[in-house]
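Please, structure for the following, as tokens.
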Amino acid sequence: MIVSIHQPSYFPWLGLLDKVSKSDVYIMMDEVQLSDSAYQHRNLFLTAEGKVKFLTIPIVRKGYLGRTYEELEIAGDGWRAQHLAFVCNNYGKHPFAAELMPHMERYFAAQYRLLAEAVLASMRLSFDLFGIRTRLLRQSEMNYDRSLRRGELVIALARAAGAHCYLSGAGGRDYLDESAFGPHLALRYNDFRHPQYRQKGAREFTPGLAGVDTLFNLGIEGSRALLGGTAHGG
């Protein structure tokens, strides 16, 4: 069984979708602390003019540093209408807008109290549209030693999920102790190579955007084919 582990991501980018698609189980780390500079509550999209724009889910800031991700509350409902308006205004004339817009409208029509609920829903929608059937587990629902950190935590979570192989992103080379994995848990790296596609309104290709950008430009079938054609060497 191949297991991957990653923090939650609002409408995840192709690199994370690729790693999850190559896993049997994906563990969403929802007991971490929110990092304002990460993509746990925001992501990058393109405007109709091809400029990069962050869409961010606002959270209740009071005491948030003392809470885990799963406990964070969303600050108000206005973000849903704002994000949907951005998608309509900037992706509404894309090649596959008619195919994708109903999915986005249903997502933003739902109500979410917790940040984890909204982000998890965006991830499940992304997985579904890209044809990813990987089982998802939440860190908060797992039984493991919660005193562990970094590499030891990764190993503990992977073993708790029954993994025989842990699939790490390329960044894992910077902090994982490969010798600690032992003979019963293999370690592989997913060296993702970002594919390029035509982005409506952009003069040059912009990588690293929310997977929604791919879907609106290529459609569901085209996006699944693109993801399936990425490098699988690991």
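The chain has a mean pLDDT of 95. The chain has one domain: 2-228.
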